[in-house]
């Protein structure tokens, strides 16, 4: 092999030869992504001394890695004499380039100790979690090193899709490729793809065109419902009416953030989030109080843990002012609101929901679903049964992702509940602070339990 690049897919030549910290190659099946990555990796390995870390989420044996692809490309280019294909690694005899293989799920801590990695090749990168990336990124620290992300998108909310395609960091090269740019595709495969399109166009777009799925059927609120709600009050022609509320989610550890969301009736207009230590809770409460005062809104705050202090702080501020703000606590584990009221036919709130948190999330989900049906199907609903999010909402993409992330769960009595923060952490998902604040801005409350006095209503 000469020092020129090998004969691979010509449309990707510029992608591979352009130096960039992160290279994101994604799209549908049958697009030659991994094949081309293996070919270019062998080209580099045969011309330069490099160290490749080839990783994927789960790798119980070497056959589950890109090991086989690399071996095929070595044979394809006639380079068997220049490479040693060992049981657990591949080495170029001449340049000294080394390919090593790891599964992230079981070995991510071991990877931290690796040195002198030139290329991190993440295959099936859609499964990478934020926590894993926080470990991997500083590990790939050699000058001029690159990180290759190769994947077929799964969910729009996946960490990799959100952080490398929707909002890519600096020095990131993103390229989408599908089967229609693969010149090596067989006639048989083209017929398979055509049949898939005829059978189910939505599934075809996901599998072969690399369109991420908006909805995870296991989540409480589907992303497609949220997308439909953006500026729904403008599209459907209704005005914000009713209570003005601010939901306040209090940070409960050093890595967590405080968040607040402002809503007027069925329209959510604004949000904010910020880092604050436990000893800065007083400042955070003053910040929220100030927004409530400016917007003539009352506050619903998270009263669990350190948030228990918030109520007394709001009381102190009220005592110092002639204008007073109303506030109410929200304890996710409390009993449901209107327990004897029927939620669905023959099933009361207390028999359907595990706690007030579940009831609040489901109530919000119902409003999002109604809005989706009104926008997409023309079904009639009263504004108070719907919800709209202003397109001017700060952190809009993050909010949409957080709202569509928690999954349904059930308690021991079969009542529905929302995936806990501990269970989210097991999926390596951080606390959805904006979403929690949003839910609190719409949580059912008993007005008689509001503290303070507000002349606005």
Automatic annotation (TrEMBL):
InterPro entries: P-loop_NTPase, Phage_terminase_lsu, Terminase_L_N, Viral_DNA_packaging_terminase
Domain of life according to the entry: Bacteria
Domain Phage terminase large subunit N-terminal: 21-210
NCBIfam families linked: phage_term_2
Record's protein name: PBSX family phage terminase large subunit
Protein source organism: Citrobacter arsenatis
């Amino acid at each position: 092999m000469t020092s020129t690049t090998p004969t691979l897919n010509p449309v990707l030549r510029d992608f591979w030869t352009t130096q960039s910290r992160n290279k994101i190659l994604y799209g549908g099946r049958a697009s030659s992504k991994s094949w081309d990555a293996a070919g270019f990796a062998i080209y580099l390995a045969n011309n330069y001394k490099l160290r490749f870390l080839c990783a994927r989420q789960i790798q119980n044996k070497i056959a589950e890695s890109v090991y086989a692809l690399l071996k095929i490309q070595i044979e394809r280019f006639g380079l068997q004499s220049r490479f040693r294909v060992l049981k657990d690694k591949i080495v170029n005899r001449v340049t000294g380039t080394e390919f090593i293989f790891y599964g992230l799920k079981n070995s991510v801590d071991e990877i931290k100790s690796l040195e002198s990695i030139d290329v991190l090749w993440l295959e099936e990168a859609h499964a990478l979690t934020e926590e894993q990336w926080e470990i991997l990124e500083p590990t790939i620290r050699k000058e001029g090193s690159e990180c290759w992300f190769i994947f077929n998108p799964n969910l729009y909310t996946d960490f990799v899709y959100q952080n490398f395609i929707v909002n890519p960091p600096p020095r990131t090269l993103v390229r989408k490729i599908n089967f229609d740019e693969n010149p090596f595709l067989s006639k048989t495969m083209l017929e398979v793809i055509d049949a898939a399109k005829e059978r189910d166009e939505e599934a075809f777009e996901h599998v072969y065109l690399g369109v991420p799925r908006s909805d995870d059927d296991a989540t409480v609120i589907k992303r497609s419902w949220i997308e439909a709600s953006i500026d729904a009050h403008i599209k459907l022609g209704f005005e914000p009416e009713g209570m003005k509320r601010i939901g306040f989610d209090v940070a409960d550890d050093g890595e967590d953030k405080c968040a607040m969301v402002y809503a007027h009736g069925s329209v959510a207009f604004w949000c904010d989030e910020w880092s604050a230590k436990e000893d800065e809770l007083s400042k955070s409460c003053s910040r929220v109080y100030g927004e409530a005062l400016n917007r003539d809104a009352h506050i619903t705050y998270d009263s669990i843990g350190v948030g228990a202090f918030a109520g007394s702080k709001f009381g102190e501020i009220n005592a110092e002012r002639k204008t007073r703000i109303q506030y109410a606590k929200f304890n996710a584990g409390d009993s449901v609101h209107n327990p004897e009221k029927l939620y669905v036919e023959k099933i009361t709130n207390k028999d359907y929901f595990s706690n007030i948190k579940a009831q609040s999330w489901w109530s919000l989900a119902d409003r999002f679903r109604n809005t989706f049906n009104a926008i997409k199907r023309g079904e009639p609903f009263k504004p108070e049964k719907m919800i709209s999010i202003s397109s001017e909402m700060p952190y809009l993409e993050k909010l949409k992702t957080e709202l569509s992330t928690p999954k349904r769960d059930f308690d021991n009595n079969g009542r529905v509940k929302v995936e806990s923060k501990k269970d989210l952490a097991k999926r390596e998902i951080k606390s959805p602070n904006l979403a929690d604040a949003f839910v609190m801005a719409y949580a059912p409350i008993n007005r008689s339990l509001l503290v303070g006095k507000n002349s606005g209503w």
